[in-house]
C-alpha cells in the first residue's frame, strides 16, 4: 500500500511512491508526502531509517528505483542535481561543505554568482555582479555573519559554518530548502542561535523547509509537521504533538529518546 498523506493546497514538493533499493535492500520504500508552500516539515527517525537517503533522492544524488518527485508541479524525478538547484531546490549536508580558504563573503558570492550565471556583455555583467553582492550582503545579514564577511570561512566555529552554509543557500533564492541535520556536530551553546536563524528563514522570509533532525527539542516550535521514517517507510506525518503521542512512533523509537 502506498503511504500517502492528504495533499496540502499548493505543494512546493510532491513525492509519490518514492523507492530506492540497492543490492536487494529496500532503503526507501513507497514514500509519499507533500510539502506546502511556506511549510516547515521535519523528518525524524531512528538511525538508519532512510532519512538521508530520502534527501539524496529528492536532491538528485541518488536515482530512485520507483516513484516520482515534483517541484512546483514540475516532474524532476530524473533531473540531475544542478537542474534541480536551478529550479529552486537548495540543500545542506550533514558534514560541512564551505571553502575554508575563501572568505565568508566569497563563499556566499560564489553561490550567488553561479545562480545568476555569467553574462558576456560587460554592462550586464556589472549588473549581475552587483545583484550577486547584494544577495550576499542580504544572506549574511540574515544569518548574523555580516560582521565576519572578510574572515576566512575556515576560521569560523562549527556553528557559524552551519550558518554560512545556510547563507550560501539563501543567496540562490531557493523555493525549497533541505537541511540535513544542521545541528550535527554543533556545540550545545551554538544550538539556540542556529535554531533562531532557521526559524527566521522560515517565519520571516516565508521559505519552505524540509529538515532532518534527530532532536525533538529543536523541532518543537519550528516544524509545522513531523514526518517519521522507519525502516525506509513513512510511519507517520502529523503535527509535532500528535507524532510524539503516537504509540506506533514510540514503538519505533523503543530504546531511543524521542
Ligand atoms: N549506497 C548505499 N548502499 C547500501 N546501503 C546503503 C547505502 N546508503 C545507505 N545505505 C543504508 O541505508 C540505510 C539508511 O541509511 P540513511 O543514511 O539514509 O539513514 P538515516 O536515517 O539518514 O541514518 P542516520 O540517522 O544514522 O544518518 C542504512 O542501513 C544504510 O546503511
Explain this structure to me?
The protein is α/β, with parallel strands linked by helices and 258 residues long. The protein has a domain at 3-98 and 175-252: 3-Layer(aba) Sandwich (Rossmann fold). Helix content is 36%, strand content 25%. It has nine helices and eleven strands. The strands form two sheets. The chain has a six-stranded mixed β-sheet with strand order 7-8-9-4-10-11. A hairpin with a 2-residue loop joins strand 5 (66-71) and strand 6. Helix 3 crosses helix 4, helix 3 runs parallel beside helix 5 and helix 4 packs across helix 5 (158-170). The radius of gyration is 19 Å and the shape is globular. It starts with a strand and ends in a 6-residue tail after the last helix. 43% of the residues are buried. The model has no long low-confidence stretch (mean pLDDT 89). Residues 22, 25, 27, 45, 47-53 line the site of adenosine-5'-triphosphate. This is ABC transporter ATP-binding protein. Pfam families: ABC_tran, BCA_ABC_TP_C. Keywords: ATP-binding, Nucleotide-binding, Transport.
Question: How is this fold's topology laid out?
Answer:
Layout: E1 3-4, E2 11-22, E3 25-36, E4 40-44, H1 51-59, E5 66-71, E6 74-75, H2 81-86, E7 89-91, H3 104-116, H4 122-143, H5 158-170, E8 176-180, H6 191-203, E9 208-212, H7 216-219, E10 225-230, E11 233-238, H8 240-245, H9 247-252
Parallel strand pairs: 1-3, 4-9, 4-10, 7-8, 8-9
Antiparallel strand pairs: 2-3, 2-5, 5-6, 10-11
Helix pairs in contact: 3-4, 3-5, 4-5, 5-6
Question: What is the CA–CA distance across the termini?
Answer: 27 Å
Helix-strand pattern, N to C? EEEEHEEHEHHHEHEHEEHH
Structural shape: globular
**Discrete helix count:** 9
CATH architect. name of the domain at 3-98 and 175-252: 3-Layer(aba) Sandwich
Strand content: 15-25%
Largest sheet: 6 strands, mixed
Amino acid at each position: 500500500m502506498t503511504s500517502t498523506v492528504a495533499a496540502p493546497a499548493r505543494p512546493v514538493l510532491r513525492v509519490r511512491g518514492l523507492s530506492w533499493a540497492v543490492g536487494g535492500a529496500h532503503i526507501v520504500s513507497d514514500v509519499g508526502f507533500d510539502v506546502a508552500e511556506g511549510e516547515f516539515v521535519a523528518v525524524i527517525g531512528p538511525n538508519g531509517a532512510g532519512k538521508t537517503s530520502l534527501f539524496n533522492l529528492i536532491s538528485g544524488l541518488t536515482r530512485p528505483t520507483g516513484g516520482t518527485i515534483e517541484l512546483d508541479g514540475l516532474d524532476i524525478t530524473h533531473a540531475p542535481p544542478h537542474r534541480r538547484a536551478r529550479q529552486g531546490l537548495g540543500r545542506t549536508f550533514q558534514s560541512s561543505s564551505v571553502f575554508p580558504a575563501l572568505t565568508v563573503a566569497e563563499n556566499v558570492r560564489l553561490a550567488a554568482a553561479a545562480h545568476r550565471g555569467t553574462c558576456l556583455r560587460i554592462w550586464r555583467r556589472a549588473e549581475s555582479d552587483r545583484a550577486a553582492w547584494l544577495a550576499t550582503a542580504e544572506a549574511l545579514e540574515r544569518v548574523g555573519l555580516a560582521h565576519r564577511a572578510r574572515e576566512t570561512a575556515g576560521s569560523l566555529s562549527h556553528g557559524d559554518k552551519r550558518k554560512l552554509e545556510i547563507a550560501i543557500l539563501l543567496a540562490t533564492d531557493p523555493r525549497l530548502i533541505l537541511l540535513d541535520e544542521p545541528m550535527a556536530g554543533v556545540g550545545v551553546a551554538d544550538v539556540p542561535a542556529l535554531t533562531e536563524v532557521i526559524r527566521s528563514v522560515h517565519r520571516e522570509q516565508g521559505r519552505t523547509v524540509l529538515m532532518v533532525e534527530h532532536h525533538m527539542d529543536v523541532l518543537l516550535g519550528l516544524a509545522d509537521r513531523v514526518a517519521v521514517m522507519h525502516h525506509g517507510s513513512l510511519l507517520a506525518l502529523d503535527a509535532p504533538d500528535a507524532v510524539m503521542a503516537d504509540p506506533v512512533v514510540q514503538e519505533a523509537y523503543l530504546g531511543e529518546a524521542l
